[in-house]
Amino acid sequence: MDRMTNAIRDRWQSDDGAITLILGDCLEILPTLEAGSVDAVVTDPPYAEIDRDYGRMTEPEWHAMMDVVVPECRRCLCKDGSAVFVLQPNSERVGRMRPWLWEFMAKWSRDWNMVQDAWWWNHATPPTVHCHEANGLMRPSLKACVWLGPSDCYRNQEAMLLPIAEATTTDKRIARHELGYSPSGLSMRHGRALTRCAERGGATPFNLLVCANSDAVDGGGAYGHGAATPYLLAERWVKYLSRPEGCVLDMFAGSGTTGVACIRTGRRFIGIELEPKYFAIAVKRCKDELARMPLFKEETRQEWQRELL
Question: What is the arithmetic mean of pLDDT over 302-309?
Fold first, then answer.
């Protein structure tokens, strides 16, 4: 307890203790958290060689930080818990990518386990300056969601199901239950897959999560954070990797978007943030969200009633 007290510069907790925000350095605070006390980690760390108001890290400095963070996350996670790190590759110059992301993925795939490769596509990314010329590059709109944990980690696929396409609802192969083969060798029982899709009320999710990073209401950017995680992305991972009332950790909490997702979905949350101004934003957002929860729950109840009618 003394170690945590010395590491914390400020702390805020909800009245019921479910939401905790800590101002301090995660490298100092993570070792004070109880082993096995967290169900999932959902976090968007700073990136190497990017100028931010909180500074700039070289690639070796970034790896040194993550070499502490990742093992501590693993220690804090429960037996079937897993962690997602949202990371975007960047370039040393036009036409030459920096290797830090690929090195991180390779290292922790070996030293821990990558459950599945997963990606976030920000389909609203505008063309950057190196895209404009005739020999320009493509828009850098994809971020890695590096998903680390045991191969049998908890995941609730029901929370990630996609709306069923009209073509799927009218697919006449639903009566075909024999095993069919595509030219590539893929085998599939179309009738079983289509029936299961209808029974579940949703289609199996892809490992490419699509959402814009331009939300002017729920995203951290609306509160002044220059590199915020979109709310929808945070919510999807929270619901996918943690059970209701489980505990989610974000050691790079920023403006508190993951905390807001936990409040709305009934999870507990521990957020650690180094920068005082972002910590203050996160506290305000969580307080505001908790204050509107009775209204939010009433809106949800009315929506359920309308669906029943």
Answer: 46
